[in-house]
Prior knowledge:
This protein has three helices and eight strands. By secondary structure, the protein is of the alpha+beta class. The strands form two sheets. A six-stranded mixed beta sheet has the order 2-1-8-7-4-3, with helices on one face.
Amino acid sequence: xxxxxxxxxxxxxxxxxxxxxxxxxxxxxxxxxxxxxxxxxxxxxxxxxxxxxxxxxxxxxxxxxxxxxxxxxxxxxxxxxxxxxxxxxxxxxxxxxxxxxxxxxxxxxxxxxxxxxxxxxxxxxxxxxxxxxxxxxxxxxxxxxxxxxxxxxxxxxxxxxxx
Length: 163
C-alpha cells in the first residue's frame, strides 16, 4: 500500500478549499444550469437525495427542474485517496441549504427593533445536507508538475438531506 506524501495532503487540502469555494456559489447562481455541469464529465455519477443522474448533460436538465438554492457550508473535510495519481480526493461537505424563491435573510427586524423569523412557510427554510464528492484529476487538463495543484473534476457526487 502506498502512503501519501505530505505534499499530497497539502495539495488535497488546497484543492478541497478551492472546490468548495467555487462549487457552491456556482450552484446558487442564476446561471447554475450552465456553470455547475462544468465541474462534471459525461461519466460522472450523481445521486441527488436518492435520485440518480448520470453525466453533465443530465445534470443540466436536472438543475433546471429544482428551485433556486442558497447553501451555507458549515464544514468540509478532504481525504486524499491512496494509490491514485493526482491524488484523487474524497470531499465530505455538510451544511444547510434553502430552496425556493425566498432564499434571502431568515430574520427581519420588527418595529420594536427585535429580530423575528421572516417566514413560517417551508420555502426559504434551511435544511441540513450532507454531500460527498470524489474528485479526480481532469484527464483533459495539461499535466502539472509534481507537488503542484492541478485541475479536478467530479467523478462521483452523492447529496442527501439529513433532516
